[in-house]
Please model this.
Amino acid sequence: MYTKTPFITGLGSGHPTETGMILDRNLGVPYIPASSVKGVCRLAYAINEAVRTGNSTVDDSIFKKYFGSTSDKNPKRGEVIFLDVYPSEKPELKLDIMNPHFQKYYNGEKSKPLENEDPVPINFLVVS
Model:
């Protein structure tokens, strides 16, 4: 499997620059956590059910059956098991750039974004 565009996983995780990539602690390679795979499958299932039934809401019991529930009153393990996704070949990493504008606005220093600020480029790793 190949990506059509550069790929990053864990963007915004608990990293000081908020551009950390999730790497497996034993293998040192980027991977997609099972929780992310589960979230994408859950969303796809919800969209499919909503389209199939024509309802904008989906029966919660179906989600609990397949995906489980972390409810305090009645936690339930889902019937589907999700695993982490690892690359089948050695991934090639490269630098990419994020170029945020309006830094003072996002930091709360200004009440509205203004076009007179210089963008601050941020480099981060991606799988190419």
Q: What stands out?
A: The radius of gyration is 20 Å. The first strand starts at residue 93 and ends at 98. The CA atoms of residues 80 and 95 lie 36 Å apart.
